[in-house]
Design brief:
The complex is a heterodimer of chains A (about 160) and B (about 700). Chain A is mainly beta. Chain A has a single domain, classed as Immunoglobulins (Immunoglobulin-like). Chain A contains one helix and eight strands; from the N terminus they run αββββββββ. In chain A, strands 2-8-7-4-5 form a five-stranded mixed sheet, with no helix packed on it. In chain A, strand 7 (about 130-140) and strand 8 form a beta hairpin. Chain A starts with a helix and ends with a strand. By secondary structure, chain B is mainly beta. Chain B has a 22-stranded antiparallel β-barrel. A five-stranded mixed sheet of chain B has the order 1-6-7-4-5. Chain B has a two-stranded antiparallel ribbon with strand order 2-3. In chain B, strand 8 and strand 9 form a beta hairpin. Chain B starts with a helix and ends with a strand. The chains are: A mainly beta (about 160), B mainly beta (about 700). Chains A and B meet through helix 1, strand 4, strand 7 and strand 8 of A and helix 1, strand 16, strand 29, strand 30 and strand 31 of B.
Chain lengths: ~160, ~700
Amino acid sequence: MKKISLSIIITVCLLLMIGACVSEHNEKDMVPPTIEDSEDCYPQQCQSFFRGEVIPVRCLFTDDNELGNYNIEVHNNFDHHTHSTVAGECEMEEKKSPVNPWVYNKDYHIPEGQTAYQANLEISIPTDIDTGNYHFVIRLTDATGWQQIKSVSISIK
Amino acid sequence: MNKYVWTVLLVAWPWMSYAQTDTLKDETLQEITIYGNSTERQVQMKSAQPVVDISQQFIETHLGGSLMQSLSFIPGVKAMTIGSGESKPAIRGLGFNRTAVTENGIKHEGQQWGEDHGLEISQMDIDRIEIIKGPSALLVGSDAIGGVINIYSNDIPERKLEGKVKTFYHSNNASVGGALRLGGIGEKGFYWKAAFSGNSYGDYRVPTDSIQYYSYYIQLKDGRLRNTAGHELDGSVMVGYQGKNLSSSLRISNTNGKSGFFANAHGLEVRLSDIDYDAHRRDVDLPFHRVNHLKVMNHTDWRIASWRMSSDLSFQNNVREEQSEPVSHGYMPQPDNALERRFNKNTYTVLVSAKKMIANNHTLNIGTSMEHQHNKRDGWGFIIPDFRNLTTGLYVHDRWYINQQLSLSGGVRYDWTRTHIYPYQDWYETFGEYKQRSEDRILTFNSVTWSIGANYNAEKWSVKSNIGKGFRTPIPKELGTDGVNYHIFRYEVGNADLDPEESYQLDANFCWTGTRLTVKVDPFLNYFSNYIYMNPTSEYYEGLQVYNYTQAKVVRWGVEVQASYKWIKQLESELTGEYLYARLASGDKKGYTLPFSQPWNVSFTTTYKPWEESFLSVTGQYTGKQTEIVPPEKPTDGYFLLNASLGHCFHFKGKEHQALSLSLQAQNLLNRRYYDHTSYYRLIGVPEAGRNFSLTASYNF
C-alpha cells in the first residue's frame, strides 16, 4: 500500500518536473512577415499595363526577425477564378480561353539578416502574349518559414 | 541513450519493482471480457493502458454529425472536423496516421493522411466502442502511436428477431437521417444481422454574415457556409454460426458519402466562381469530394486442445475522389475536367492468433498479422504517388494475474514492412520538361515494439501504469512526394531516408470510486525519438513555399481528469478536463509545438434524473486560447459553450424488449462564434457551427 502511494507520488512529481524543465521559455518567432499594403506598393489592384511595357515592382517587405525569400507569379484570370487577396472588384473583360497566356514565375533571394527589404524590380511584359485579366501574386517568407501572400488583379492591354 | 528515455524508465521503475516484491496467491482468475454492463472497474482492469468503453447509447445521446463528433465529449479524444458531416479522430493530439481505427479487430484503411479526409464508418451501425489512449502497437502494429479506436459491430443477436429503428433531425444544417438494424438467431447456432442507414444535410450555419480571409470579405447568405451540404448512405449484412468448438461470421459493409467543400476557399486558396451556390442549400456543387468504402470481413474462432484460436480475413476497397473547377496554376495549364484527385486503395488483411490459459493465472496470446495495400491515383493534381505496401507482424503477449488485486502484462512485437513507390511524371511541361515528381523506389522497414504494464485494484481505488513503445512506418507521401499542393500554397518534398517513427510512452491511471465521489486521473508522458513532420522553410520552388519532410525529437505530456459527484440519487455533477503539452526538442523548429495542437479545456455537467428512465442535463464547456502554433497556423481564441440535453425512454407493459427513446440535444445554445483549432476550416477563418437542436427517436423491438 505504502509502496503504491510512493509510486504515485514519484510518478506525479517526475511528470511535473519534466513538464517544468521542458517548458522553459525560448524566444520563438511567431510573427509572419508583412508585405506593405499601401499606395506605395506597386503594382496596385486594377492597374493596367500594355504589352512590351515593364511592370515596376516597388514594395516594402518587413519582418520582426529575419526575412526569407520572395516569389513573383503572374497567371491569367481569363476564367474569372479570382483569388485576389485585395478587396475591390476590377473591371473584367469577357471570359475567354487562353491561347498564349503569360506565365511568369520567379523566385527572388533576399540577402541574409534583413528585417526590411525594398523590392525594386522591372518585369518586362512579352509582346506576343494574350491580353486580358491577370493575377499578380507576391509571396514572401521569413527565415522561420512563415509566409505572407498578396495577390492583385491587373489587366494587360 | 537519451535523457528522456531514462526519465521514462525511472518513472516506470517503482511499478515494476513493486510488482516483483508482491507475494503470490493461488487464486484462479478468469480473463475479464465483460462488455455492455461492465462497471468502471472492470473496464479499467481490462488493460494496463487507459481504456474508455462506449456504449451504443452514449453515441445516441451525444449524436453529432459524424462518429468522431459524437465521441469528442470523451476527455483525450478529439474530432478533426471537415464541415458538419465528416471528421477524423485524434487521440491526445495525435491524428492522421498516428491514431488507428479498427472495426472488429481489422484496421480501417482509407486515405488517413489527408487533411480533408473523414472516417468512413457509419455511426448508426455500431454495437460498442473501446478507446485505448496510448501506443497500441502490440496488437495493432504500425500507426497506433496515439492510440486506437476499436469499433465493434459484431455482437450476436439474442432473439429470433430483434431490431431497432432510429431517426434524427439536426436543425443547424437541416440534417435528416434514419437507420434500421435487424438481426436474429436461427436454429443450430446460425444468426444474421442487417443494417441500413442514411442521412442528408444542407449547408451549415455559422454565427456570422461574412468571413474575412486575407483582405477579402466573403459574404454569406443567411449565415450559411455555401456548398457544405452532403449525404451518406450505408449498409451492412452479416451471417454467422456459433457452435461449441467453432464460430464463424461473414460481414459485408459499404459506406458511401458525398459532401461539398466551402465554395469560396479550397484549402487556403480563395476562390470565386460563376456557380450559383446560394440557389439551393442542399445541393453539392464543385468543389466536392466523395468516398466509397467496401469491407468484407470473416472472423473465425475455434479450439485446438487448450488453445483458443482465431482468424480474421478481410478485404477493403476505398475509393475517394475530389473534384474542383479546373484552373491553371503555375506552369499547369487549365485541365479539361474537374477530377483533381482520385485514390483507389485495396487492402487485404490476414490475422491469426492463439490464446491459452497457463497455470490458471496466465493468459498467453500469440499472433501474427499480414496486410497488403495497393493505392492507385488519378486526376490532374498530384499529391501522393502510387504504392504497394506489404506488412507482416508477429507478437506475443502475456497477462499474469498474480492475485485478485494485481495483474501484470507485457509483450513484444516485430514488424516488417516493404513499400514500393511507383514513379510519376507531370502531364504538363515546366520549362519545357515533363517533371518527374516521384521515383521508382523499394524501401523496407523493421520495428520491434514492446509494452509492460501493471494493474492494481483495491476496494475503492485502482491504479495502473503502462510503459510501451509504438511505431509508425513512414507513408509514401512522406517518403516519395515531390509535389505541389496548390490548396495550401506549398511545395511538399518527401524524404526517402526517413526512419520508422518511434515513440515511448508512460501512462498511468488512478481511479477512486466512493459512494458519492468518483475520481479518475490519466497522466501520460511521451517521447518521440524521430517524429516525422513537414518543416516549412524560407525557400521557394516553382512559386511555392518549400516544406521538407524531416524528423525531430518530440516531448509530449498531458493529463485527463474526470470527477463525478452524486449529490442525491437523482442529481449528479461531473467535471472533466484535459491538458496537452507538445514540444519539438530538436531540429530547425526546436521549441515549437506540433501542428493542430489542441488547447486545454474543462467542462462541467449536471444531470438530473427525476425518474429512472428520464434525464435532463446541462453542460458548460470552456476551451482555452491556443497560442502554441507552427506555420502556417494562426492563434485561436478561447471560448465558452453551453450545451443541454433531455430525454426519456418509454417502456411498454408486457413487452420487455420494446422501448421507445426520445432525446433532444442543444449545442452551442448561446450561438457563440468560435473557432476550433483542429478544424480543417480554421486556417481560412471559418467559425464552427452555430446553435443547433437535435431530435433523436429510436424504437427497439
